[in-house]
């Protein structure tokens, strides 16, 4: 049996959503803003490490971001993009009026900030592979997927970098048990990477980091802990996996695979934001979203 990491992630978010997408082939509603953000920054980062954005000025990176953003939102959920997150402000005797800001506009501004700061901080990084497909056989199941970035550092050796653009920083317990992160680490240790149509083995457990892009934004005003203009935080969040953890993970992921194999598809919403972030709410009778504040729901989508 072969299962992709996208299947695993969807199944883990809600098995019923997996059934809708992979068994019933139900149309998903329009692409969400979180998916647009994740795709757009991935494309910008690829260019920063060797494409047209190598050695260019911030204005050029911003222009490129504008371009990829327009492409990315072609099939996006327009209602979500147009949702106002900052209300307009009327003119006062000292200040001119300011127009309202929508979710889409704010996402584009953030995308530019992330790309420009990433280019400043990471341009010299030794990126060995970007968006590299892998396959990893555990038991009788082969898991497949794509790793955003693999680097080599003189101090640590192999590093896997997992990009994250969610509006809330993921908690420690979530990161510690996240299946995608574990599978990426496991794939470098036991699996095969597909590079230039060849399958290669690394055979080492890498260091793994979540690269949290919103930490590249700057504080707009000072507070007790930070000065105006400082980065919101360190984008590098270590999420390493030990050998013992990866061996335990083999059992865990095979449980998930057997659930898929047996057609076990309960409504079991585990993702923060639940049904509100699901692309199949239009076909599912399990809508339980009334109490969820919409502005808190721009969480990462990994599909
Ligand atoms: S709407 Fe909720 S219960 Fe239904 S498939 Fe989506 S996440 Fe699952």
Structural write-up:
36% of the residues lie in helices and 19% in strands. It is an alpha+beta fold and 303 residues long. It has one domain: Lambda Exonuclease, Chain A, CATH 3.90.320. A hairpin with a 3-residue loop joins strand 5 and strand 6. Helix 1 packs across helix 2. The site of iron/sulfur cluster (SF4) has 12 residues, from helix 2.
Ligand inventory reads: iron/sulfur cluster
CATH class assignment: Alpha Beta
Point out poorly predicted stretches. Answer: 289-303
**Second CATH tier, the architecture:** Alpha-Beta Complex
Order of helices and strands: EHHHHHEEHEEEHHEEEEH
The percentage helix is 25-40%
Number of strands: 10
Strand content: 15-25%
Cα distance, first to last residue? 20 Å
Number of helices: 9
Number of domains: 1
- CATH topology, what is it called? Lambda Exonuclease, Chain A
Mean pLDDT across the residues is 88
Largest sheet: 8 strands, mixed
Structural class: alpha+beta
Using only C-alpha atoms, the radius of gyration works out to 20 Å
Summarize the topology.
Layout (H helix, E strand, L loop, with lengths): L1 E3 H9 L1 H9 L9 H16 L9 H15 L5 H4 L2 E3 L14 E2 H20 L4 E12 L2 E13 L3 E8 L7 H6 L1 H12 L1 E4 L2 E3 L6 E6 L23 E3 L4 H19 L42
Parallel strand pairs: 1-5, 6-9
Antiparallel strand pairs: 2-3, 4-5, 4-7, 5-6, 7-8, 9-10
Helix pairs in contact: 1-2, 3-4, 3-6, 4-6, 8-9
The structure holds iron/sulfur cluster (SF4).
Task: Describe the structure concisely.
By secondary structure, the protein is α+β, with helices and mostly antiparallel strands.
